[in-house]
């Protein structure tokens, strides 16, 4: 029910399917990553996919602004290398403290987020990535490619019908 009562912050009518999560994560090498960030943890469906691949020596930071989603994820993922952060992705840099990230995985509803917040999130994301790091975004509009193009010079777009609604995976680096 939380999903529907907070559509403006979740940005979706359904959570990401396992097929979509697997498609998103197929463009990563989570097993060998040191630091991964997830923006918009939601119900934890992407988080679960990350954790299934996560090395015990790796660290995962999950940003989520919805308190009930945060509380549920803290119970669901009590691992010492997983940190659920109940704060806006706009504050990403405050939690990284200068550390660089292998992957930023996101399902944030950028079309519903203010331009100012979007700029701050994407700037912090770009600046936080390692040289070969990737920002990977699940979205439902191809038009977001233009937005991401302001921050990233290389964007690959993949599409999957195996989600409701069908979705794009944008791999930015």
Q: What is the CATH fold-level name?
A: Rossmann fold
Described by its quaternary structure, the protein is single chain
Strand content: 15-25%
Q: Secondary-structure element sequence?
A: HHHEHEHEHEHEHEE
**Distance between termini?**
35 Å
Return the CATH class. Alpha Beta
Tally the structural domains.
1
Number of helices: 8
Secondary-structure-based class equals: alpha/beta
Rg, rounded, reads 15 Å
Keywords: Methyltransferase, Transferase
GO molecular function, one term: methyltransferase activity
InterPro entries: Methyltransf_25, SAM-dependent_MTases_sf
Protein name: Phospholipid N-methyltransferase
Question: What layout of secondary structure does this protein have?
Answer:
Layout: H1 2-5, H2 7-10, H3 18-25, E1 35-39, H4 45-53, E2 59-63, H5 67-76, E3 82-85, H6 92-96, E4 101-106, H7 115-128, E5 129-139, H8 144-149, E6 155-160, E7 167-172
Parallel strand pairs: 1-2, 1-4, 2-3, 4-5
Antiparallel strand pairs: 5-7, 6-7
Q: Could you characterize the architecture of this molecule?
A:
- This protein has 173 residues and is of the alpha/beta class.
- It has helices spanning 2-5, 7-10, 18-25, 45-53, 67-76, 92-96, 115-128, 144-149; strands at 35-39, 59-63, 82-85, 101-106, 129-139, 155-160, 167-172.
- The chain is built from eight helices and seven strands.
- The protein has a seven-stranded mixed sheet with strand order 3-2-1-4-5-7-6.
- Strand 1 (35-39), helix 4 and strand 2 form a beta-alpha-beta unit.
- Helix 3 (18-25) crosses helix 4.
- It is globular and about 35 Å long.
- The N and C termini lie far apart (35 Å).
- The model is unreliable at 1-13 (pLDDT under 50).
